Amino acid sequence: MTYNLECPVTGYKGTDVVTKAHGGGGKEMQKLIKEMFTKAFPYLQSKYDAALLKISDPTQMVVTTDSFVLEQLTFPGGNIGSLSVHGTVNDLVMMGAKPLYMTVSFILEEGLPMRRLKLLVSLLARAAKKAGIKIVTGDTKVVECSHTNPGIYINTTGIGFEECTKKQVPHLNKISVGDKVIVSGDVARHGMAIMSVREGLELDTPIRSDSAHLCFMVDGLHKRKVFPAFMRDATRGGVATVFNEVARDSKIHIHIDEEKVPVDDDVRGLCEILGYDPLTVANEGRFILFVRPHQAQKVVEILRQFEGGEQATIIGEVVAEHKSGLVTAKTLLGFEKIIHMPAGELLPRIC
Amino acid sequence: MTYNLECPVTGYKGTDVVTKAHGGGGKEMQKLIKEMFTKAFPYLQSKYDAALLKISDPTQMVVTTDSFVLEQLTFPGGNIGSLSVHGTVNDLVMMGAKPLYMTVSFILEEGLPMRRLKLLVSLLARAAKKAGIKIVTGDTKVVECSHTNPGIYINTTGIGFEECTKKQVPHLNKISVGDKVIVSGDVARHGMAIMSVREGLELDTPIRSDSAHLCFMVDGLHKRKVFPAFMRDATRGGVATVFNEVARDSKIHIHIDEEKVPVDDDVRGLCEILGYDPLTVANEGRFILFVRPHQAQKVVEILRQFEGGEQATIIGEVVAEHKSGLVTAKTLLGFEKIIHMPAGELLPRIC
Asked: For chain B, which end, N or C, has fewer CB atoms within 10 Å of the first or last residue's CB respectively?
């Protein structure tokens, strides 16, 4: 397996590695911004410390922030640049908003090869363009590196405007007994893709992350006049965390048929070897939907028309109110069990 | 000198140090959010990955992002919590906007004493309240620590709405020949305050950082119908960086009378000992204003009524157009010199 490490940002002709001067606010930082960042991010308002944005007729704004601390710059199925963009965009989309603007802040460790930064910047720019979100302002800091492999931390903050009317906005309190629970695709890919790279596993077919933005799928639902009661992307902590958060915050009892949750055979195999429950493993392009029962089949059909949604499946339902936070499942062996909120280390530095 | 290390956040009763589980998306992270963050930040929409915000009749939005990587949690005159809030608020205020919403994202090193996090959270909450900005969403990641003193990186992103009309919004292209250059107070305090702590200097009177939000001062100007052509806070790289950025981007020649730039005697002394030019040292509560000559005296009088503005002074003027980027100064000894864009390491990890 090879990664395409080409870098379309060709402007910067400075030093080979990041130095503290690149974060000092002086000449070197100015050069970096002018020759690398402004070329990669066409909407960047680089002459100010903030971006001034025109907005028209909005009533509600959605804001989200995320830091990304993954050690691997690239992994099968994605890279930290696309991961950052997708993470931010998806948090907006899940709230029914149209992603519009994004900020990017880098914390760079001293000695980072400049070509790695260039590559990251290119990957970010490409993913932002694909998802239709504009990077408008940013910040760069450089810190000492006390180990041998200088890394990058990225923070992205996304701003979107609500496209749904108040009645249509997904909300925890709109979930009702009888609502069907749908997963948009097979689970546990992202966590296991990172894990297999980290453990140096030589798999015949590498497990690819599901990292993807969910704009098209949610837009597809809205265009067909489907507005789910609630949606959440199942990232850190996996779908088990989403079920537990929603059950707790909506004061409902969710029941899942574990057999129906799509899991790729290779992913399940690796989970078994490494001792992880696929329901608790991170995804980066899958989401859980709560929809009225009469719409459930239609939602599945719509989702399946999109890349990443081919395996959308009804996996459970809301069975009772006021059972504060209970999540149960019919297991693969036919027993009943409680799905608890995952605890402990899970998979660290997965995003 | 003692710092008040009390922590008003009393809710959290978990572990003593930060562990990877606190960034894993599972139970421990939920507990941290519920028992510490939501108590400290009353506007936090902690049940979603994004915040949904009502907005009314805005036409222009201002967005800014900053990461803070300072090693010291507190320093004379401030702390990393107030520094983060002030940095974000000031970037909005300098654009003529009213600061409204803020996101906070933590990257925590494993092993960080939980009481340090609690303290930081309290300091952030207090500074946000003082500056009138609402913390509405956030993110927490935990990373390995490869040294002995686990630290914290903070990213804050601020959103404000433009209060000025289009004619009143400060802008680089509004600066004209003859405009006076004003500094809002004495310079180089923040950089030297950090440096004296870092070097372990036992000064008779500790140098206090100028860290402060500039909302009141700018609001004071607006209330008196003064809308400067341009404003910029002089942070990393000091006032010399602001002069050079503005001269370059507005294609003007700025001339400064170095003698008029207020510098505290102790600050100047330390700069001389350590070999820094006060004009290139970071401030965190000082800004440079470009105003029409007939308004300059009025501006100084208004600024001097506010805490932090007592030493506001006219220090120079815009002397010519099309001298692309030239900054000159009459030095303390009466010579003429060019003030270059600072370069090199300056003071690393100062904010």
From this structure: N
Element (H, E) at A246: helix A238-250
Domains of chain A and CATH, by start: 20-162 (3.30.1330.10), 172-338 (3.90.650.10)
Separation of alpha carbons B339 and B331, rounded Å: 10
Place of tokens 């939907």: A289
Asked if A184 contacts A67 with a C-beta cutoff of 8 angstroms, the reply is no
CB contact under 8 A, B105 and A24: no
Neighbours of A89 (CB within 10 A): 29
* CA-angle at A150, arms to A72 and A71, nearest 5°: 20
Between residues B196 and A345, which one has the greater pLDDT?
A: B196
B66 interface with A at CB cutoff 8 Å: yes
DSSP string, B98-144: EEEEEEEEEEEETT-BHHHHHHHHHHHHHHHHHHT-EEEEEEEEEE-
Task: Tell me the CA end-to-end span of chain B in Å, nearest whole number.
Answer: 21
> Are B50 and A139 inside 8 Å of each other by CB?
no
> Which residues of chain A neighbour B139 with C-beta distances below 8 Å?
65-67, 155
CA distance A39 to chain B (A): 17
Q: Which residue has better confidence, A149 or B78?
A: B78
Q: What is the pLDDT of residue A5?
A: 43
Neighbour tally for A301: CB within 10 Å? 12
Mutation to test the B interface, candidates A45, A103, A198, most B Cβ within 10 Å: A103
Q: Report which of B83, B236, B225, B243 is spatially closest to residue B153, judged by C-alpha positions.
A: B83
Query: In A49-75, which positions are buried (b, 16+ CB within 10 angstroms) versus exposed (e)?
Result: bbbbbebeebebbbbbbbbbbbebbbb
Q: How far apart are CA B335 and CA B331, in angstroms?
A: 5
- The first and second tokens of residue B171, run together, are 């802008």
Q: Where are the alpha helices (DSSP H) in B133-237?
A: 189-198, 215-223
Q: What strands lie across the sheet with B152-162, from one edge to the other? A: A51-54, B60-68, B152-162, B97-109, B134-143
**Which phi and psi (to 5°) does residue B60 adopt?**
-135, 140
Partner residue opposite B345 with nearest CB, options A24, A50, A162: A24
Contact between B310 and B238 (Cβ < 8 Å): no
User: Phi-psi category of A72—alpha, beta or left, where left has phi over 0 and alpha has psi -120 to 50?
Assistant: beta
- pLDDT by residue (tens digit) across A110-163? 999 988 888 898 899 999 999 999 998 989 898 988 888 898 999 999 999 888
The CB density around residue B38, as the number of other CB atoms within 10 Å, is: 16
The CA-based angle B30-B32-B38, given to 5 degrees, is 90
A197/chain B closest Cα distance in angstroms: 18
Q: Which token pair is B209?
A: 């950082």
Chain A contact present for B203, CB below 8 A: no
Residues A133, A99: contact at Cβ < 8 Å? yes
Amino acid at A60: Q
Q: Which two tokens stand for residue B169?
A: 């919004």
